[in-house]
Amino acid sequence: MRALLCFTILALLLFPLRVNAQENLALFQAKVFDMGNHPIPGAILELHCLGNKYYAVSNVDGFIKLYVKFNNINDSLKILISQFNYKQRVEILAIHQAIQQTLQFKLEKNFKTLSEVILEPDIFVKGDTTIFRADAFRANADNSLEDLLQRLPGMSVNQYGLISFNGKLISNILIEGEKLTNNYFDLSKNLSPDLVEEIQVWTNYNEIAVLKGRQDATKQVINLTLNKSARFNGAARIDFGLGIKKKYQSKNNIIALQNQIKSLLLSHFNNIGIDPYESNTMFSDYLQQNKYALDNVELRGIYQTPSTTYNKGFANNIVTFQNKAAYGLCNNIIPFKNKWSLFLHSSIYKDGQTKQNTKESISLTDTLLNSLEKENLQCKPQNFDAGAELALNDTSHYFKLAINYRRSAFSLLDQIQNKIYFDQTYKSRGEETKVGIFDIRRIHKNNHLEISYQYQKGWLSQQMMVLQNTPTFIFNYPSNKIAQNYKVERQIHIVKLGFHLNTKWISKLDFSFQSNKYQLSSNAALVLDNDIQLDTFQLNNIMKSRNGTFIINGSWKINRWLFDYGLGISYLFESIRGSTDFKNKTYPFLDLNLQVPINSYHKLNFTLKGNEPSFFQQIIVPQYYFQNYKVYRENRLNEMYMHSYNVGVLYNHFLARKNRNLLVYYQVSISAPQIINSIQYDGAYNSKAVTSSMNEYGVRLQTLFGQYNSNLKFIDSKFKLSASASLLKQYTTSSTFNKQLSFTTQISLKRVWFNDLSTEAGISLNFNNTLHSNYNYQSYNPFLEIQAKILRQVSGSFYFKSMNTKSNNQHSDFHLLNLNLFWKSDKSKWQFRFSANNILNNRFLLTNSFDPYFIIYYKESILQRYLMLQTSFTF
């Protein structure tokens, strides 16, 4: 009984407590929608009641359920609902209002309005203009505009620096539509790519305004659009570097476009093997000017003797090559009233290529010979170009008066000292060419007058290298001199005269005919070439030649079809030593091109070319042979002309969409080079003329297939992935068969941690792999060569940007910190770059940057290693 009473009392005590707990708990329910009545998942609910905070998250249906403790039903309840990219909503309700029904809350989008947002693809076509965004193709290791152009789809740069787009050569490079140079090498090899914002290719360009729409334009030019700071206020970029072993490099760009006088100033000098004028390949001028003497010179600095029965060559040669080059340019455009302008241009280029030998060990049979050489200047080309052009260019008149002068000098083997069995010193005379051009052009709507005269005078020197002529066998070494030197004086007169009235030419040299449906235009030039050759040492003969060339070329357009043609006749007459040996031949040549546009993205080109005879070189080539334990030498004078024909078909396919770019083109050409004539003389200098001909027919197929670029964004735009791939196939067959295959892939990954209107930070990685294989077979000299090489390039960077913009939009501060690490496997090149940029006052767009980096080069072939610190300023 006592136990039952205790249980009843305990139950009565607990029952009211249980009732009070249910009365002080309120069930809160709500749904969260956007302005379109779509549920918002993941919305955060925050409740404030009696000093306590309660949190809940909406489910996929936007529903929220939460219990809240209260003392009185009239207590206030503060509700806060927030979600990313939505405005926060705040409500204050009483408890009895919140628990009676399921509340509904609508959130508004949180937009940050920008004045203007422009989204552009990396490549797009607008009429006859193809536009590339430079930022999409820029790389950390770009040192010149040429490096940037090589990565553009459809753009190619050959070993001589010539630029072509879709297989057609570029005639010039413009800056903001202005022609600031006549030689685009000035810009392609020296202009900093950081100043460029867009690269535009104009496929149909005519610089003469009065002829636009009346004469079909066939030229193709590149127009560079600069970034805002350079476009509105000009730009200057100064790069200077110093390294160990007395290495130096400096490249400077100054561009001023908004002043009354538009100016372009470039300078570049270095001693690390970069040629700022013609080709970045070391010894390019040396190989071009004296090919026969340099056939046995290799870049690794080992000389190979002429091919004989026993050829062991030189070994253990310790050589360091270095290239010294200096280049400067100053061009100005001075505008006047009524569309008149004066273009002043001048440039100077000097190049000294040296070979420094410390000790040279030459092994021939069982005899060891030591040769000590001082530093000697092997190649010293110089060029000076200056001129003035006064022009009027409007829609009704065109007038140009141009005066140009160019001087080119080339010095070969300035000083050589050798100590093998003898001491000899040779000094070459060098080549010097002077060119003067006087040109007047006047074009009106109804008449056209053109007068042009060009005079060229030059000297050509051929110098045989002593080491190259050293025989392999030295049983009885000849004591006579080895070097041969002779000089060629060359004079050329070119006269052009043309006049037409009422679209009909009355001049015999030039004519043109136009109508509304089709157009036919032609021009002709007469070229006279007089050569006088004198051998100052041993041949003691005089060779005279007179060559005449008559050329007719023009274009014919019918509807959308364009036909370019060039026809000519070359007349050659030569008399050797006043004897009866002569040749008197006439060679025709032609150049035909038919362009058939299918639509805006497809074109077909058919070409048929027959090149005019090319004069190779007249040079003494010593031939050594072994007989009766003695070495004999025979001098041979080789003189060769080449005449070739080739047929080509070029198919261009270009597809450009937003964020997707595809370019495919095929090129097939059939060539038939032919050596016309070869004359040889024996060592006794008797007239022993031997005429020989050799025909070689070949087929060349070049295919660029699947060059594809795409940009993909995912994960809330924090990651950006871009990829590209290109496949290049090339076949060449004649007496040699050559097959080349290159496959390149590039992947870029960018990660952004936080990004809004004021700050951005991220990291980017770039991977580039190139597989290059080459198969070469020679039938006349059984030789098989197979090469395979993989080039890897990895670069990465970490960057941080911050910008503070005031409400009046008159002032902005921009800070950029950038760290780059670059590695390229083929040259073992490491580059570490630190840069900091500061842009003050957006109204005036002042830019300051500091950009130093370290470079380490290691080349096994030339044994050139150095460490360089380079600093760059842009303002």
What can you see in these coordinates?
With 875 residues, the protein is mainly beta. Among the domains are: 2-107, Sandwich (Immunoglobulin-like); 123-226, TonB-dependent receptor, plug domain (Ferric Hydroxamate Uptake Protein, Chain A, domain 1), CATH 2.170.130. 5% of the residues lie in helices and 61% in strands. The strands form 8 sheets. The chain has a 30-stranded antiparallel sheet that branches. A hairpin with a 2-residue loop joins strand 32 and strand 33 (561-576).
Average of the residue pLDDT scores:
58
Q: How many E strands? A: 53
What share of residues are in beta strands?
A: over 45%
Rg is 38 Å
Going by helix content, strand content and strand pairing, the class is mainly beta
Cα(first) to Cα(last) distance is 103 Å
| Number of continuous helical runs | 6
**Unreliable segments of 5+ consecutive residues:** 7-22, 114-119, 279-322, 354-379, 411-430, 459-488, 501-546, 574-582, 612-644, 654-663, 671-698, 700-717, ...
Instruction: Tell me the CATH architecture of the domain at 2-107.
Output: Sandwich
Question: Quick gist of this model?
Answer:
Helices cover 5% and strands 61% of the residues.
Key terms:
875 residues, mainly beta, Immunoglobulin-like, Ferric Hydroxamate Uptake Protein, Chain A, domain 1, five-stranded mixed β-sheet, 61% strand, elongated
Give the topology.
Elements: H1 2-23, E1 25-34, E2 44-49, E3 52-57, E4 63-69, E5 76-82, E6 89-94, H2 95-98, E7 103-107, E8 123-126, E9 129-133, H3 145-149, E10 155-157, E11 163-165, E12 168-169, E13 172-175, H4 185-188, E14 196-205, E15 219-226, H5 228-233, E16 235-243, E17 247-256, E18 262-270, H6 284-289, E19 317-335, E20 340-364, E21 367-371, E22 376-393, E23 397-412, E24 416-419, E25 423-426, E26 431-444, E27 447-463, E28 485-501, E29 504-505, E30 510-514, E31 518-535, E32 542-558, E33 561-576, E34 582-599, E35 602-610, E36 614-615, E37 619-627, E38 630-638, E39 640-643, E40 645-657, E41 660-671, E42 674-678, E43 694-695, E44 698-714, E45 719-733, E46 736-755, E47 759-778, E48 783-805, E49 812-824, E50 829-840, E51 846-850, E52 853-859, E53 864-874
Parallel strand pairs: 1-7, 13-15
Antiparallel strand pairs: 1-4, 2-3, 2-5, 5-6, 8-9, 9-14, 10-11, 11-12, 14-15, 16-17, 16-53, 17-18, 18-19, 19-20, 20-21, 20-22, 22-23, 23-26, 24-25, 26-27, 27-28, 28-29, 28-31, 30-31, 31-32, 32-33, 33-34, 34-35, 35-40, 36-39, 37-38, 39-42, 40-41, 41-44, 42-43, 44-45, 45-46, 46-47, 47-48, 48-49, ...
